[in-house]
């Protein structure tokens, strides 16, 4: 496991205006003078963690920040109250530490955090043309085509059905089920 220690000039804070939420963070370990914070939604985002490290280094009482973008974590060495560091991180637009839970994070949320890193990677390598939803729809349609060539027509309908569902889920604000998807999202 590679750990990068970085202290640099602070960079411009990311934009978190109307409609943008700060990344959610979790305190996973804390001892006197040391705390590990994970930001699952930014896992594998090296630029984000370098930015966060540089800005946290400016916070009074922070003596050192170690990052590991692969695991999505920051190890903060400090000589002050960790709550003031968390408030600082929220104020400068880095992340918002959620209150600790008695239950572990649900698997679906952990997967969502990991998949968001895959989605960012796909968008990067494709120049913004392909995201994970596009890939899923393409694979399902391709698999349906392959089943047609093989003569397995009974498998074609379910594959196209799931491709259609994936397509609707990929664009809930414009799809025919937009209102239902909004209600479902609010319930979650």
Helix content: 40-55%
Q: Whole-number average pLDDT? A: 81
Main sheet: strands, sense, barrel: 6 strands, mixed
Q: Strand-and-helix sequence, N→C?
A: EEEHEEHEHHHH
Strand order of the largest sheet: 1-4-5-3-2-6
Q: What structural category characterises the helix and strand content?
A: alpha+beta
Describe this entry's structure for a reader.
The protein is 45% helix and 16% strand. It has 188 residues and is an alpha+beta fold. The chain folds into two domains: 4-97, Alpha-Beta Plaits (2-Layer Sandwich); 131-187, no CATH class. The longest helix is centred in the middle third of the chain and has 19 residues, at 107-125. The two termini are 34 Å apart.
Core attributes:
188 residues, alpha+beta, Alpha-Beta Plaits, six-stranded mixed sheet, 6 helices, elongated, disordered N terminus
What's the SSE blueprint?
Layout (H helix, E strand, L loop, with lengths): L3 E2 L18 E8 L2 E5 L7 H11 L5 E7 L4 E6 L3 H10 L4 E2 L9 H19 L6 H19 L5 H15 L7 H10 L1
Parallel strand pairs: 2-6
Antiparallel strand pairs: 1-4, 2-3, 3-5, 4-5
Write a compact overview of the structure shown.
This protein is an alpha+beta fold and 188 residues long.
């Amino acid at each position: 496991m590679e750990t990068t220690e970085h202290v640099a000039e602070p960079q411009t804070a990311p934009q978190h205006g109307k409609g943008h939420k700060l990344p959610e963070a979790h305190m996973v370990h804390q001892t006197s003078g040391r705390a590990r914070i994970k930001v699952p939604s930014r896992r594998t985002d090296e630029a984000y963690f370098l930015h966060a490290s540089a800005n946290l280094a400016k916070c009074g009482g922070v003596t050192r920040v170690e990052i590991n973008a692969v695991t999505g974590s920051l190890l903060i060495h400090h000589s002050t109250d960790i709550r003031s560091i968390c408030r600082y991180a929220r104020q400068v637009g880095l992340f918002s530490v959620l209150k600790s839970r008695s239950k572990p994070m649900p698997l679906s949320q952990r997967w969502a955090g990991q998949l968001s890193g895959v989605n960012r990677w796909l968008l990067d390598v494709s120049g913004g043309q392909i995201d994970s939803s596009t890939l899923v729809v393409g694979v399902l349609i391709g698999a349906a085509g392959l089943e047609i060539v093989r003569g397995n027509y009974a498998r074609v309908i379910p594959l196209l059905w799931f491709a259609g569902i994936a397509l609707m889920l990929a664009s809930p604000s414009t799809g025919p089920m937009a209102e239902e998807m909004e209600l479902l999202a609010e319930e979650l």
